[in-house]
Amino acid sequence: MDVQPDTDPAMVLFSPDAADEPHKPYRHLLEQCPVARSDNGSISGAAGASVLISRFEDLNWALKHPEFISSEDAVAIGNDRPLIPLQIDPPEHAKYRRLLDPEFSPKKMAALEPDFRVLVNQVIDQFLDRGECDFHEDFATPLPSTFFLRLTALPLSDLPVFLQWRDNIIRPDVEPGDFDAAAEIRAATGKEIYAYFERALDDRTAQRDHGLLSRLLDAEIEGHSLTREELLDICYLLIIAGLDTVTATLDCMIHFLARHPDERRRLVEDPTLSPVVVEELMRFETPVMVTARTVKQDVTLGDVELRAGDNVTLVLGAGNIDAEEFREPETVDFDRGRNRHLAFGAGPHRCLGSHLARLEVRVALEEWHRRIPDYRIPDGAEFHFSPGIRQTDTLPLVFGSG
Ligand code: HEM
Fold first, then answer.
1. Count of alpha carbons within 13 angstroms of residue 266, beta-carbon side
2. Which ligand 1 atom sits nearest the alpha carbon of residue 288?
3. Against a cut of 0.85, is the pTM above it?
4. CB within 8 A of 107, min separation 6: which ones?
5. Alpha carbon of 194 to ligand 1 centroid (Å)
6. How far apart are CA 350 and CA 55, in angstroms?
7. Residue 96 and residue 104: Cα distance in Å, rounded?
8. Strand-pair partners of 399
9. Domain limits for position 164
10. Residue 294 in domain
11. How many domains does the chain have?
12. Are 88 and 96 in contact (CB under 8 A)?
């Protein structure tokens, strides 16, 4: 993809092939327009001017100043009310995080590791003898989804319907730019999600189980149980955030390692490198390319005046290759040391599931490379990454003697 210096920044970022090779548009934004404001309608179809923010320092500031750049009204994904905690600003936001953080704490997640390791191996057993697989379909999709349903004690038999909802919400099947059709699909799916969780909460109100929903029913904030609406607004976000992002991250990382045998060999020969491999590839690949905000109070960033009501796209992936923060940012360097990447966001809304995600991705990479150290993408294979949250539509791999 060649980018002309005067091309509209949003067109660059949201062009069809940007998610396949995102560093080119990121570099363009960083070099040409690190804070870009355009009055020509919004890239998301919403009314108002749109702003793209790309520099590490500006992103870090925006993520940490919700009183200026807020997530309250920023995304509409079929939900009737604000998603909790993503669309709640501080100080109210903190009371939800105090309740949810312990559910996803490093200690609690570490206790899940043996169980998860067994699951990874069971998934690999399904296709190892074939000498080939569709990594996206056979590994990256079932693995985190199955684990997430176990964690929430929701029936595994509901997985296909969850995956359909996830796709309808995150990447609805419409012509590019048809925002009305996308909104219609999201609204219909949203109704189904609410109805499903109404039933799931009714069942657990009648009889508690060992899962997260039952614990949320028993939880209290400042002496009060959560209302039914609060419970639904938490469930809605968790199911969307928990099912898609780890799949995308696994696709991005294996795609990279399949095409970079030297880096792969280092990991195979020294599996203790896996935590730094995860962090460096989180930075380099940034599976969640962007996140959305709106301007709440007028503010000047760089020399650009942002106005209350502007729609903001925080280009996390661009910040993660900003040379002001990262030495040789477009090189994957497992010896990088300090790595303050923004792949999980920053500030109050920093990812609630980051410890779970890190555990899943690290153990998946360790077990995959222990059992399948050599693999490649077959010549001529055709696949693409989806924009926004970068997962592949298919990712064929051959291994063994294949
Ligand atoms: C590698 C996988 C993941 C990536 C790359 C990722 C990325 C992110 C990012 C960038 C944000 C910040 C959004 C913003 O500020 O607008 C975020 C927030 C969030 N993530 Fe994740 N995420 C991942 C996995 C998960 C998982 C497994 C869960 C499920 C528990 C989860 C739940 C959440 C929630 C609830 C928030 C909102 C937190 C808040 O508003 O306080 N994430 N994630």
1. 13
2. 5
3. yes
4. none
5. 20
6. 18
7. 13
8. 375
9. 85-287+312-399
10. no
11. 1
12. yes
